[in-house]
Design a protein that fits this description.
The complex is a heterodimer of chains A (207) and B (292).
Chain A: E1 2-3, E2 8-11, H1 18-27, E3 33-38, E4 43-47, E5 70-75, H2 83-90, H3 94-103, E6 105-111, E7 118-121, E8 137-140, E9 144-148, E10 151-155, E11 159-161, E12 164-168, E13 188-193, H4 196-202
Parallel strand pairs in A: 5-13
Antiparallel strand pairs in A: 1-2, 2-4, 3-4, 6-7, 6-13, 7-10, 8-11, 9-10, 9-12
Chain B: E1 2-8, E2 11-15, H1 35-44, E3 53-57, E4 61-65, E5 69-77, E6 80-82, E7 85-87, E8 91-95, E9 100-103, E10 108-115, E11 120-121, E12 133-136, E13 158-163, E14 179-181, E15 189-193, E16 206-207, E17 212-215, E18 221-224, E19 231-232, E20 236-240, H2 245-248, E21 256-261, H3 264-291
Parallel strand pairs in B: 13-21
Antiparallel strand pairs in B: 1-4, 1-12, 2-3, 3-10, 4-9, 5-8, 5-10, 6-7, 6-9, 11-12, 13-20, 14-15, 14-21, 15-18, 16-19, 17-18, 17-20
The chains are: A alpha+beta (207), B alpha+beta (292).
Amino acid sequence: MAPLGDSAWILSELEAAPHAVAATLESLAIQGLIEAVASYETVGLYVDPSVFDPETIPSVASQEVAPPRTHTVPVCYEMGEDLAAAADALGLPAQRLIEFHTAKEYDCFAIGFCPGFPYLGYLDERISGLPRLSSPRPRVPAGSVAITGRQTGIYPLERPGGWNIIGRTPLCLVDVAARYFPISAGDRIRFESISVGDYDRLLGERL
Amino acid sequence: MSLRIESVFGLACVVGSPTVGLRKYGVPPGGPFDTESAALANAILGNNLDAPILEIALGRFEALAEHDITVAIVGAECPASVAAREVVMQSAVNLVAGESLLLEPPGIGTRVYLALPGGVSASVGGRLPPGSSISAFESCAPRGGALAQRPASLGSSELRVVPGPQSGLLPFGVLEREFRLSPSSDRTGVRLLPRVAAHDIEIPSEPACPGAVQATPSGELIVLGPDGPTIGGYPKVAVVCSADFDLLGQIPLGGVVRFSPISLERAREALQQKRRRLETCLSSLRQVSRAT
């Protein structure tokens, strides 16, 4: 357990999945613990340092958590600005990249970067290893589905970003004002290839 | 009771109390960058300390009173006037319908907080363009109320920091010099110049927090602001202690920043001291308002 400033801690070397540890700790009503948040291999504890005592954090072994939900996210790969370049860099036809991307069900390790952005993995080795763009785009359109390294993710809101954009989903994946957060760490995501016509028809619908 | 924004050169946005419990969905805490100034502005009007408030950064701001209205202005010291007569900062200001409040670019500090009676009734977040109106939740009779001194967050360039989780990989020594705020700084992150040495340290994305001093591979240092990402994969050299986070929100673009390392224990003491100082300011404000 390492301090992250004076009002947060990072828990590492966990004995269970980070999202399970975070959910368990939040359910325990630990004094001074404000939020517990899962990341890839660690959990962030955000605390009031005047009452929180790090000694009160129990070690969380395999805990019962709700079974993961699986979401299917439709993606129009034709709208992926970097699809051709990414396929070239991987030495594959674009169609093969799409097949590999849609073939797997991905784990959602964490939500972060911006509201509702799911960090998903891991990619099939044959489409892994792409670096981030050397110069990030100032604006990645909302709904962009992107890959880098072994990871894939979805930009639910327009943001600057450096991942390789291989498609776009028409669906709404987050609405902060309405407290709409359909995806949680621990869920599973599958992508499904759709046409431009399907994209237009589904645009703006909720996941 | 409302104000119509006539012109903004800079950024004006409504900020509320920090969001709690949504980091797991990637939603940062948000809230005022300089929490203490915002709390004091609200306190002058007898509001809840975390009532929604207008945060005005960097520039000239002009707003027209659509009705008689009392506001409180706390934070960066700037020349302020109502209908061309000078008014005092860090205090309540009474406007008659049709009068304009003008705030010139600040001389000390960078963010001004404008409180309305009961809080600002407008949706939180997003910038307010000229022509938009902000309303008060309550009405109140013209009143006085002023701080005995300007907020403690103003005019300091030294931020106390504790070592970050990756200070072993990227030693604290890289912070031992003077930096300046880059013009591309905002509420997401305060970017510093010059760059430090480039590095190729990669870590799996891990929890981040406001005040974390991240080093990008190119050597750019970014201190996360209240709207910064909740997790991130850049190594964190240090974290600004909670007691000094407000100071970061008041350093102007181009202004100097220095970091001074302190222990975790000292950082916690500093936070306690800051809370006591705020409590003292609040109780003297309450005494004054009872006396008048």
